[in-house]
Design goal:
Elements (H helix, E strand, L loop, with lengths): L1 E2 L2 E2 L1 H20 L7 H7 L6 H6 L5 H4 L4 H8 L4 H45 L4
Antiparallel strand pairs: 1-2
């Protein structure tokens, strides 16, 4: 709120808290950063690369936000065998990403726990 050309500190604090929360939510919601073109070539879908660019979904942030049906439609994948291979590769990438995230979070948590344990040990040392 602006009063006589001045912004109240509470408004600034609220805005900063809201911004920090948005940034934390974005950080929590990370997406795989696989090279989509490479993924398509690996499973034999090189012919889908122009369609990928045409549909403007080549960016991993956009690509991995879409559901499988939309992606299959945009890429023009129609046969069941190709759909199956594509879904398997996509699920593999997402699982790998989830494992990497879990590993990273575990390492961060282990680091924090280790630091806390060291602090507690230093505080509780008794000199006789």
């Amino acid at each position: 709120m602006i009063l006589k050309g001045l912004i109240r500190e509470e408004d600034i604090d609220e805005h900063e808290e809201k911004y920090k929360k948005e940034q934390e939510d974005k950080a929590k919601k990370t997406l795989p950063h696989e090279k989509i073109e490479k993924m398509l070539k690996d499973i034999g879908f090189a012919q889908c690369i122009p369609k990928l660019k045409e549909a403007d979904i080549a960016d991993p942030e956009i690509f991995f936000e879409l559901d499988e049906g939309t992606i299959l439609t945009c890429l023009g994948i129609e046969t069941e065998g190709k759909k199956y291979r594509f879904k398997e590769k996509l699920n593999h990438i997402k699982e790998k990403h989830q494992k990497d995230l879990a590993k990273k979070q575990h390492e961060e948590l282990s680091e924090v726990v280790g630091e806390t344990f060291e602090k507690l040990q230093r505080q509780s040392t008794v000199v006789f």
